[in-house]
Write a structure and sequence with these properties.
single chain; 420 residues; 24% strand; 6-stranded mixed beta sheet; alpha/beta; 17 strands
Length: 420
């Protein structure tokens, strides 16, 4: 493998996701996280209603109509208990439920003063902060309207041009029966060495973002069992050193010709809890010699000139999908933006580092929100002008890479199955 010519960069890249950088300190309690979330979003949710809201739920009297805000608590009838989860981890063959939404689930609104049962709510998940207008009857709040927290919309991008950011996820180096020629073809394409038509497109690519799951991890190794705990190792990961070496060579080749942002995913060697911390440069000794390789946490947020980009490797979207009505992946992503929160199901369902503040609260909407390691490619433009993109896993046919025009926000895919 040989590196290509380093291309000219005519933009300013700024990393703005420092709030996702966390020490693995487990002293704080999850109560602090919920408290910080409610404190950050409660007033904004009431502001969105356009009416004065009550300070506490307990101020709403019987027969009274008013606006109250709090955190949603949804009791899922189909969700297994923590004991059932433990039994499954140590060898029970009975599979756990993967979809927990039920229209008959009980829904509550909770704040520091108490909890009220809701009737007539939308598709809301535990951890969502909203305000609701309704009437309290027989200790049940009959919901008339749900209001989501207020937020400023992103400013329009005025510049014009023809430059692309490439997004790839789910490389899964080490996957059984995985043709490593795919990675070679990907590197050749990004360097402009894959034919005249590909060369023209590749010359316009000014950055590559790798959105998680760069290494393969077998399903049986994603959960610890008793034997694995006793042996202090995970089954199926004996070849990780070899996989890391190949990934290192691949990234080193690319970092010699264009900037590469590396984001961890569920299967990568870093902490499993959200937010995931950057992959250590010591694991990638060749690629880390290049200043063009940047290892960032998951979620990842940056600006390219005036373009604001927000990315995750997809665990937050998949977790939300488990507890919601069936929707497309971009519709689930849109729900997160409406809630002004990247991971509403954390820490209730999505494993999360305990923190005294909530870094997942959105203070400003991005221009583009992308999620990697998704089953399929989808794109959507929200009413607030945010471009949503689900980036499919590259290791799964038809092996796609997503290109985003950083000026027009139009997206397209390059399919590598046809090159094999």
């Amino acid at each position: 493998m040989s590196g290509g010519k380093t291309r000219d960069i005519n933009y300013t890249h700024q990393y703005i996701g420092q709030r996702f950088e966390r020490s693995l300190d487990f002293v704080p309690q999850y109560f602090h996280l919920y408290q910080a979330r409610l404190s950050s979003l409660k007033h904004r949710a009431i502001t969105a209603s356009g009416e004065p809201g009550l300070n506490e739920l307990t101020e709403l009297g019987a027969g009274q109509t008013g606006v109250v805000a709090g955190i949603i608590i949804r009791l899922h009838k189909q969700r297994s208990s923590i004991i059932q989860h433990y039994i499954a981890k140590v060898g029970d063959p009975e599979p756990l439920e993967t979809k927990y939404y039920n229209s008959e689930d009980e829904v509550y609104l909770e704040d520091e003063s108490g909890r009220i049962k809701l009737e007539g709510t939308e598709d809301l998940v535990t951890g969502s902060v909203v305000s609701v207008k309704g009437c309290l009857e027989n200790s049940v709040l009959k919901v008339q309207t749900v209001f989501y927290p207020y937020i400023d919309t992103p400013m329009k991008i005025e510049s014009q041009g023809d430059e692309y950011i490439a997004f790839v996820s789910g490389l899964e180096v080490g996957t059984p029966n995985y043709d490593l020629m795919l990675l070679h073809l990907l590197a050749q394409f990004l360097q402009g060495n894959l034919g005249d038509q590909a060369l023209e497109k590749a010359r316009s690519i000014v950055r590559l973002v790798v959105l998680g799951d760069s290494l393969y991890r077998p399903d049986e190794a994603r959960q610890l069992d008793r034997k694995a705990v006793a042996d202090q190792k995970l089954a199926g990961l004996s070849d990780m050193g070899e996989c890391l070496q190949y990934l290192d060579t691949f990234l080193a080749e690319l970092a010699g010709s264009l900037p590469v942002d590396l984001i961890p995913g569920e299967a990568d060697p870093t902490n499993a809890s959200f937010p995931q911390q950057p992959i250590s440069p010591y694991l990638l000794p060749q690629a880390s010699r290049y200043s063009a390789l940047n290892s960032f946490p998951n979620p990842y947020e940056c600006t390219l000139d005036e373009l604001r980009i927000l990315c995750t490797s997809g665990q937050n979207v998949k977790s939300l999908a488990q507890f919601s009505k069936d929707k497309s992946w971009t519709e689930h992503m849109e729900v997160q933006l409406k809630l002004r929160h990247l991971a509403p199901t954390a820490p209730d369902a999505l494993h999360c580092i305990p923190m005294k503040e909530d870094p997942f609260v959105l203070e400003t909407l991005p221009h583009v929100y992308l999620c990697g390691c998704m089953p399929e490619y989808e794109t959507k433009l929200t009413q607030e002008g945010v471009k949503l993109v689900s980036v499919p896993s590259f290791s799964k046919p038809p092996h796609k890479v997503v290109l985003l025009n950083r000026f027009t926000l139009e997206t397209e895919t390059i399919t590598f199955e046809s090159f094999l």
